[in-house]
Amino acid sequence: MFRDDVPGCGVYRHTDGRLVKQSNTLAELLHGDRASAPQTLENLLDEAGYTAYETVQGVYTVYAPVEDTVLGDAFRHALEGVRYLIQVDTDPKSHFFVLVDDSLADYLGVLALLQPLAIHKRMAAEPLQPVGEA
Questions:
Q1: DSSP H or E stretch at residue 22
Q2: Alpha helix ranges (H) inside the chain
Q3: pLDDT at 85
Q4: Which residue has the higher pLDDT, 131 or 8?
Q5: What band does 9 get if pLDDT is binned at 50, 70 and 90?
Q6: How far apart are alpha carbons 64 and 9 in whole angstroms?
Q7: What is the mean pLDDT of residues 18-42?
Q8: Out of the domains of life, which is the source (predicted)?
Q9: Stretch 83-108: mean pLDDT, rounded?
Q10: Which residues contact 45 (CB under 8 A, 6 or more apart)?
């Protein structure tokens, strides 16, 4: 069963250039426990009408709504106006979600916020070279 109710999770909305916490979990954002909770994040997003749009491996995945998707009642209140849902993978045990409205400026602002994380993960993955070697 998909669980996002562990420490290191949170759902934020990009508002006025800042990330504002909306809830601790996606389930909480969707107004409590649902009787037919999806087994995976992908199933939950598929049910909501979102599909993977872009992935930077180990850093983030951007989900966008499928063309002409009509949100079901379970998702309408929580995701109304959301153009991008970004899953941010900070480490293997922590991930966060950022909701971005239909605004290019907001989308680019969130990607700019994620650049230091992407750079850090890329540098951490590179092997260290002893000093003096080029």
A1: strand 18-23
A2: 26-29, 41-48, 73-79, 104-125
A3: 92
A4: 131
A5: confident
A6: 20
A7: 70
A8: Bacteria
A9: 88
A10: 51, 63, 85
